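ARCHIVE CARD
Drawer: 12
Card no.: 0347
Subject: one protein chain, sequence and derived structure
Cross-reference: see card 0346
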Amino acid sequence: MGEYEINVDIDGDGRWDDVSVTEHPDGSVILEGDVDGDGRADFVGYDEDADGLVDHADYDTDSDGDLDTRWTDDDGDGWLDSSEPIVDDVAGSGDGAGGGGSDGGSGDPAAGGLRSKLVPAPGD
């Protein structure tokens, strides 16, 4: 596995946020970020093919410590386009994700429109 570097703006404030990177033998990469400093991940991004673009990401949009919204890059351009709520699977009958989707909207977290643009580090 090579050294995977990426820049990500998790909260949409125009500044790169720190993320921890976990590379897996299958070539996938998981990124985790804690933007509010509470010790729990507010963002978990999944780059399935290590191309420097997150394929989907889970967010804690209400800062309660639980990931509650999944955003997906529908067209592979590096922008997370659509979202759906993450539903706890109490009965154990599904994969933990579900609910109705919505389009990307305004990008305003207060309006439920989070976006993250992932950009390869300079020199890549």
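Annotation on reverse: The longest strand covers residues 29-33. The chain is about 0% helix and 25% strand.
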